[in-house]
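Hi support team,

I'm filing this because I wasn't sure whether my run with zinc ion finished correctly. The job status page said complete, but I'd like someone to confirm that the output block is well-formed before I use it downstream. Pasting the exact inputs I used:
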Amino acid sequence: MEVPISVSLRDFYTGNDHDFTVEKQAICSTCEGSGSADGKTDTCGACGGRGMRVQKHMLAPGIFQQVQSTCDQCGGKGKTFKTPCKVCHGSRVIREAETHTLSVEKGMPKGVRVSYENEADESPDYVAGDLVVVVEQIEAKIGTDEATRTDGMFFRRRGRDLFWREILSLREAWLGDWTRNLTHLDGHVVKLGRGRGQVIQPNQVEIVKGEGMPVWRGEQRSEDDDEDFGNLHVEYVVILPDQMESGMEKEFHTLWEKWRKKNGVDLEKDSGRPAPKSRGHDEL
Ligand SMILES: [Zn+2]
Ligand SMILES: [Zn+2]
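And here is everything the job wrote out:
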């Protein structure tokens, strides 16, 4: 018996308990699985308690076929009773809702299977199997109160690593001197930033060590283990202004013209490509 349960990435990060309810077949407690109102049962006379009957059919003269079928007198139970139990109507089992607690452990991988021994459908005729919970991840929502207000919905997870995109303006990417407070899944703050003059290239990826997912050791975990974390990959997306005040544009233009002929960045050289013979040359 398998049940999918979806939890948020935040729960995978911090660990959390989830109560869930499954409806399963349970042995009727009123008649203790006998199906009889007074608890008394007799061995079925039609099948001798085997629950199955073998019938012989003649297909053609002298040719017989044996057909084994469920006993229609006792319904395969092998027992009969005078008055059926009022609760299960003689079926010996009932549908029942049962609540369990799922402990999502820090760093569990999505799709992990958690087993509850003998908690699957019950029957008087066999030992109940295991209930298996498949833990999936749901899309996160931004929390409404301050304690849960994290940027959780914008993190992406791959194994033990987390991924984040941070937007920078042209000025920030180019001239530096900026900071960001990134609220992590448990609410702690990861500080990003650059000093003046520190350039970030578009789509540059910064790896922040230890700010990924907690590493889940599963069964091998021991209490003395130090918590270990994956890394956070921050990709910087640089947005260029698509409009500029005309005065500002003029000033920039004058500035570029002034510095154009001086020592700019050699794009050809910096790109590592061989320089073509005749091509316009630009800087910055
Ligand atoms: Zn029978
Ligand atoms: Zn019953």
